[in-house]
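INFO worker-7 received task bundle
INFO bundle size: 2
INFO processing item 0
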Amino acid sequence: MPPDDHDRERQHSSPREQIDVLAEQYGVDVDDLLIQSRRRDPMYKGTETDHAKAEWFARLWQKAVEQRESNRIHVRCVHYTV
């Protein structure tokens, strides 16, 4: 029996990791669990490094937004925050 969603999220943070674990648990190929190809499926894209870079940018974005009165910001404004 597969673990419940709470256990799976605690053990594997990215959707890619969750898909890999499910494929292993059910004894199927990852491609059987994806809607699109591995290269195009949005839930399977990205590496751990990609995710780390995205989290870094999200922190920069949040810092840039916190320095403004409005929560709207143009992406170029983040550049000036760096």
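INFO item 0 finished
INFO processing item 1
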Amino acid sequence: MIEVIDSIMDFLKRFNPYILGGAIGSIIHRMRTEMSWMAFFKSVIVSIFISICMGIACKDYLMVTNENIIFAACGLSGVFSKLILDEIEQILKLASVYAKSKLGISKKNEE
């Protein structure tokens, strides 16, 4: 049990700036649009997830060394998290259709 708590605390220490950036981005999004409290809490969770992904991608994949740029990217991704997820969903749907057409899979073959 202590190991689990230690790993959670390590995660929070490591990604705290990204989590904070996503939460602030979600608050900014709430100020710009009208939403219920339940929708706002859902938005905060999604924004934090997207913000952590953006922070990891900037730091490890894009090799951005300036922390301020990473924090700004996390905040922006928090504001636009719903739009980002919608675009990723569209890309995956198109990739699925393309892969099925290249592999010759159709609804008739699946049955």
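INFO item 1 finished
INFO post-check item 1: Residues 18 and 56 are 9 Å apart (CA to CA).
INFO post-check item 1: The longest helix spans residues 2-32.
INFO worker-7 idle
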